[in-house]
Amino acid sequence: MDCKNAQTLIAGYLDRELDPVRTLEIEDHLHGCAVCSQSYKDHQVLNEGLRTGSVYFKAPADLEKRIQRAVRQAAKAESAPRWLSWSWVKMAAPLAAAMLVLLTLVPFFRGSSTEDILTREVVSSHVRSLMANHLADVTSSDQHTVKPWFNGKVDFSPPVVDLASRGFPLVGGRLDYVNNRSVAALVYQQRKHSINLFIWPSPGSPDHPAQQLSINGYNIIHWTRSGASCWAVSDVNSADLSEFANLASR
Ligand SMILES: [Zn+2]
């Protein structure tokens, strides 16, 4: 494992999210590399700080009022041509800096959103399916075999398309458990890489365009279409996964 990989995986290692093979690899690297081992220690300190709440700061009670006042004055100043007057810059600059700090820190302290949790869940399921060598319950490249296989196993009929002609052959399907429910996992291949496409119904959810994420070296794309929530996970590069998602979400 090189430093670049190690740096990407340190957070996952700290949270004990890595599979045993990667855990051994990163431990090996940390023993031999002073730079990465220092950055591991830094992560530990930060984690500890977040856990004990010692890095939380309470916003001053009058901050909201000060920001509102600054915005009002800015609006007033803008209607007059003197909006760049020096006194306004002097007053607004520290406030702008404070807001920037707040905006940077807020996502950091917000905790795990549903999306974060689901992202971790689908990545774990993906890794598990590869580790346990249990990619497919039904092995077939025929969408007319894979789709009906889910009858009676899940309470919806997942859309199954064959993308072999576009470089993503269908390999099979599997029953999986994500988001506290049984979900359909469709398995595709790109060269030697496996792609898991998790699908479950989310009735009433509006269509949601594809959104791309990445954790621990895995790429994830999720979208909602026609009341179905879809999550594609793989270690293929993000451009290829993006192409896959485009084709699969048609
Ligand atoms: Zn290193």
Helices and strands: which structural class?
A: alpha+beta
Coarse morphology? globular
Strand content: 15-25%
Give the N-to-C terminal Cα separation: 38 Å
* Helical stretch tally: 8
- Sheet with most strands: 7 strands, antiparallel
SSE layout and pairing:
Elements: H1 3-14, H2 20-32, H3 34-52, H4 63-79, H5 86-109, H6 114-131, E1 138-139, H7 143-149, E2 170-178, E3 181-190, E4 193-201, E5 208-215, E6 218-225, E7 228-234, H8 238-248
Antiparallel strand pairs: 1-2, 2-3, 3-4, 4-7, 5-6, 6-7
Bound molecules: zinc ion.
Please explain how this structure is put together:
With 250 residues, the protein is an alpha+beta fold. 48% of the residues lie in helices and 21% in strands. The chain has helices at residues 3-14, 20-32, 34-52, 63-79, 86-109, 114-131, 143-149, 238-248; strands at residues 138-139, 170-178, 181-190, 193-201, 208-215, 218-225, 228-234. It has a seven-stranded antiparallel β-sheet, with helices on both faces. Helix 2 (20-32) crosses helix 3. The longest helix has 24 residues, at 86-109. The chain is globular. Zinc ion (ZN) binds at residues 3, 6, 29, 33, 35-36.
What are the defining features of this structure?
250 residues, alpha+beta, seven-stranded antiparallel sheet, globular, binds zinc ion
